[in-house]
């Protein structure tokens, strides 16, 4: 039976869409590394094409938007290896935000795969809500799941107070963004997906009084 755990809703990043014009051609395929990229690809008029996706959540969002989605079920490196192993992909268009984790275009080029890229959104860093700032000044353990290097950096740049922190990182690159700040416990998901993050977060909530941050 589950137990109640206080949760602080604290978005660290806000998505702002960038105006784009539909692309003149619809042949080839699209590369997507986030659910926000799915929206951008739709606005580019690419719905209905093959979508090579970094993970299952992105692939699920792409399918719901009308794409023929294939998931690498991993990180950017897994996606690059998946594409490199294809005998024929057609023209590739990588749809992403202004800030990305890793240089996928260069990684693909090293595998002999060329792609165009289009930026369709930007990430706006938000201030901590008062409830989070207040909790950070206590001495209770705060469990913080972090899903991207940018959200991890946003958290570390604004970290104040004395509360012990248990950070749950989606990947090594997310964990690396926390190198410069005090973290009591740092856990890295065995695989970069939501189910592993949920599992680690639940394991870390040893007591009902320990609050969890929902970034």
Average of per-residue pLDDT values: 88
Number of domains: 2
What is the fold named in CATH at topology level of the largest domain? Rossmann fold
Q: What is the helix/strand order?
A: EEEHEHEHEHEHEHEHEHE
**Distance between termini?**
25 Å
Output the CATH class name of the largest domain: Alpha Beta
The amount of beta strand, in percent, is 15-25%
Radius of gyration: 19 Å
Helix content: 25-40%
- Uncertain stretches of 5 or more adjacent residues: none
Counted beta strands: 11
Strand order of the largest sheet: 2-7-6-3-4-5
Sheet/helix structural class: alpha/beta
Instruction: Please state the second-level CATH architecture of the largest domain.
Output: 3-Layer(aba) Sandwich
Describe this structure in words.
The strands form 3 sheets. A 6-stranded mixed sheet has the order 2-7-6-3-4-5. Strands 8-9-10 form a 3-stranded parallel sheet, sandwiched between helices. It has 215 residues and is of the alpha/beta class. It folds into 2 domains: 14-123, Rossmann fold (3-Layer(aba) Sandwich); 127-214, Rossmann fold (3-Layer(aba) Sandwich), CATH 3.40.50.10090. The chain starts with 6 loop residues before the first strand and ends with a strand. The relative contact order is 0.17. The protein is built from 8 helices and 11 strands.
Which terms would index this structure?
11 strands, elongated, alpha/beta, 25% strand, three-stranded parallel beta sheet, Rossmann fold, single chain, 8 helices, 215 residues, six-stranded mixed beta sheet, 31% helix
């Amino acid at each position: 039976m589950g137990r109640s755990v206080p949760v602080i809703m604290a978005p660290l990043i806000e998505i702002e869409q960038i105006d784009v014009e539909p692309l003149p051609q619809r042949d080839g395929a699209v590369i997507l590394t986030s659910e926000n990229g799915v929206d951008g690809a739709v606005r580019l008029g690419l719905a209905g094409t093959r979508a090579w996706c970094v993970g299952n959540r992105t692939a699920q969002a792409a399918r719901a938007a009308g794409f023929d989605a294939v998931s690498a079920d991993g990180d950017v490196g897994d996606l690059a290896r998946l594409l490199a192993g294809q005998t024929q992909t057609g023209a590739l268009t990588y749809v992403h935000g202004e800030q990305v984790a890793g240089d996928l275009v260069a990684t693909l080029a090293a595998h002999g795969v060329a792609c165009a890229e289009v930026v369709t959104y930007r990430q706006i860093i938000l201030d901590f809500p008062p409830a989070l700032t207040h909790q950070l000044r206590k001495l209770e353990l705060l469990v913080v799941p972090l899903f991207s290097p940018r959200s991890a950096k946003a958290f570390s740049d604004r970290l104040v107070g004395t509360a012990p922190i248990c950070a749950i990182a989606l990947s090594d690159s997310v964990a690396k963004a926390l190198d410069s700040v005090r973290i009591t416990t740092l856990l890295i998901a065995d695989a970069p997906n939501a189910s592993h993050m949920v599992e680690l977060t639940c394991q870390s909530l040893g007591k009902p009084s320990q609050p969890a941050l929902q970034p």
